[in-house]
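Worked example 2:
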Amino acid sequence: MSFATILLPLFVEVLLTFALMFWMARSRIGALKAGQVKMGDVALGQTNWPPRVQAITNSYHSQFQLPVLFYVLTVLAMFTHQADYLFVVMAWLFVLSRFVHVYIHTGTNYVRHRFNAFAVGAFILLLMWIIYAVRILLGIS
């Protein structure tokens, strides 16, 4: 499996994170310019942003939780030559779940649907880690 094939899902996840960062910045600046919030109300990171801006911010911050385990696993799997077809398919499913999570989080923010998207991604990532660990511990290539 080529490095590009293995890393492409990771690159897409990184792109999602940067897109959210720029969207968050634009939304925050817009809220400040529109007078929806004052700088002093949010200077220390308070959650006084308008709900839409806070939803985007929360979605951005969530990219530094579960996806960190995905990044580490991808690098480890590549380094130890454990990134096969199954790994890449599961990586894409994980990234897809993150896009769905962002879509819900920044859209309707219906908590049950958002949780389901999170749970699907977490389960996929957990399976990826279990498969990886078993292969490494048992010496399976």
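The mean pLDDT is 95. Residues 3-33 form the longest helix (31 residues).
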